[in-house]
Amino acid sequence: MPPADALQQPIELDLFEGPFDLLLTLVLRDEVELLEVPLLEVVTAALGENARERWDTDTAGELIVLLAAMAELKARRLLGEPGEEEPDPDTLEAREALAARLVAYAPFQRAAGWLTARGRDCVGPRYRRQPVPGAPPPPPAAEDVARLREAMLPLLKAPPAPSLAHLTSRRVSMPAALQRLQSALSRARQVSFEALTAGFSPLEEAIALMAALELARRGEVTLAQAEPFGDIAIAGSGR
């Protein structure tokens, strides 16, 4: 028996509406070489043995669209034009997600542009509009020039020369202070420090105290103080 025509075989698939839909899908996926498909036989098989058979409008329209698509695709390949590849579902989904994000980010992009323009307009020094806490009040708008001159004149005067009255060039000798204390102890066995330094300057009083401490270190005198910050009794050691 002669082999049956493949285009006349009934095909029932869930993903395709007919054999021509399946053929076009295989062609688009490069699983069937379109240049080897005879379009005349495809058209003849599509029309069937009775070419005058009346078809309904929907079926005839779908068939014409499929055959026209195959004819256009084959013509493009014969002329060497690149054919359009079947879109990838993942690519389409990613493209739609990207478009949705761009639409959602459009307000933020406009806000960023506004902030950039605002930043360019505000370049330069910025002045404080609120007064500083504790600052004196601002001067009046209409300033009297004469009063301003009188207020500025004291600032233009030279400061007075510093006084050196509190400084002294008097020198106190430590050997002289030791001799004075030893001379006082030679006349009395015990000497009061306050009585000894009566009328002394602070510098002379400090030198006298250092002289007493020096003699106490040597063991020539003994120091006694009855109460803190009280008078110091200086007594000879009896050597």
Top keywords for this entry?
mainly alpha, 239 residues, Arc Repressor Mutant, subunit A, three-stranded antiparallel β-sheet, single chain
Overall description:
This protein has 239 residues and is mainly alpha-helical. Among the domains are: 6-78, no CATH class; 174-236, Structural maintenance of chromosome 1. Chain E (Arc Repressor Mutant, subunit A, Orthogonal Bundle), CATH 1.10.10.580. The protein has eight helices and three strands; from the N terminus they run ααααααβααββ. α6 crosses α8 (202-218). The longest helix is centred in the middle third of the chain and has 33 residues, at 89-121. It is elongated and about 160 Å long.
Short description, anyone?
This protein is mainly alpha-helical and 239 residues long. Helix content is 51%, strand content 5%. It is built from 8 helices and 3 strands; from the N terminus they run H-H-H-H-H-H-E-H-H-E-E.
Mean pLDDT over the full residue set: 76
Which descriptor suits the 3D outline? elongated
Structural class: mainly alpha
Number of distinct helices: 8
Beta fraction = 5-15%
Q: Report how far the terminal alpha carbons are from each other.
A: 159 Å
Summarize the main sheet.
3 strands, antiparallel
Topology:
Elements: H1 19-28, H2 39-47, H3 57-78, H4 89-121, H5 145-156, H6 174-187, E1 190-192, H7 193-196, H8 202-218, E2 221-225, E3 232-236
Antiparallel strand pairs: 1-3, 2-3
Helix pairs in contact: 2-3, 6-8
